[in-house]
Amino acid sequence: MNKKELISYLDEYLKINSFEDRSKNGLQVDNQKEEILKIGYSVDPTNFIFEKAIQENVDMVISHHHIFNGQGQVLTGILYKRIYNLIKNDIALFACHLPLDAHSEVGNNIGLLKAFVRIFDLQDYEIDCFWEHNEQIISYGIRFKEDIHIDNLIIPFAEQLGLEKTLYNFWKKEFIHSIAFLSGSCWNTIEEANKKGYDILLTGEVRHSGICLAKELSLSLFIGWHRETETIWPKLLAEHLKEKFGIEIVFLDEKY
Questions:
Q1: How many whole angstroms separate alpha carbon 190 and alpha carbon 147?
Q2: What is the pTM (predicted TM-score) of this model?
Q3: Residues 109, 148: one domain?
Q4: CA torsion, ordered 107, 113, 118, 123, to nearest 10 deg
Q5: pLDDT of 86-118, one tens digit each?
Q6: CA 70, 72, 76, 80 torsion-angle sign
Q7: Cβ atoms 180, 139 nearer than 8 A
Q8: Does 209 lie in the same domain as 113?
Q9: pLDDT for 22-53, tens place per residue?
């Protein structure tokens, strides 16, 4: 696949320019190759990921988290080592943060929701917008009529998706009929989830003050950890590129 055409497609497909984001989304590090034959996908752009990229002979790494943000940065310390590793081995880096959390087809949050529907074989449900950022829908919630025991968020849902298993059942009831999904960090959405009447908020990580607030509001929390809730999108996006362009893909990510 021609690199310039691939970058252009990714920018358009992911609507890179439609989001205000602290991350500098898009191509972050270029290389000299004109063709991209193999992509490695990952949650994080770290040196232990780049070492795996080198071993796998990939032409480009697509990462959810970024090396560069929108502010000026200097190439020293660990940032220099990361960039040096990429340039020395002629590997490009494409990063996409909020646009990929929000994407309606291959995004983290819709991926979590679709997995929930599939695992519990839901037939009668409604999907709504849970959280917006600068007038862009970032995450979704689902409301359904079936009784789902709250313990089943641990087994089978969390185990099938490889999530951590921290459940705070502040709601104090056995069955849930609605759930909001927000991968990564829940930011300041505890009150939003409570105001919109969700039984539980599934997210990656919550500050101590957020857990205290959820308890005060009797909003149950399922915390699956940041990385674990964001491994869905790299696979979905990579599989999309493989199907559309025939690009070879490999999962590079590893847990710390």
A1: 23
A2: 0.90
A3: yes
A4: -130
A5: 999 999 999 998 888 889 899 999 999 999 999
A6: positive
A7: yes
A8: yes
A9: 778 999 999 999 999 999 999 999 999 999 99
Q: List the Cα angle 215/226/201 in 5-degree steps.
A: 35
Strand pairing of 166-168 and 175-185?
A: unpaired
Query: Is residue 19 within 8 Å of residue 229, measured between CB atoms?
Result: no
Dist. CA 9–CA 211, nearest whole Å: 40
**Residue 220 and residue 115 share a domain:** yes
CB 190 within 8 A of CB 217: yes
H or E segment at 5? helix 3-13
Q: Are 96 and 60 in contact (CB under 8 A)?
A: no
| Cα separation, 9 vs 53, whole angstroms | 22
Length of the chain (residues): 256
**Residue 75 to residue 170: CA distance in whole angstroms:** 46
Inter-residue contact 224 to 162 (CB < 8 Å): no
Write the Ramachandran bin of 184: left for phi over 0, alpha for psi from -120 to 50, otherwise beta.
Answer: left
Q: Which of 237, 255, 130 is closest to 193 using CA atoms?
A: 130
Beta-sheet pairing, 175-185 with 136-149: antiparallel
CB 234 within 8 A of CB 249: no
Residues 176, 195: one domain?
A: yes
The total of structural domains in the chain comes to 2
Question: For position 191, which CATH number holds?
Answer: 3.40.1390.30
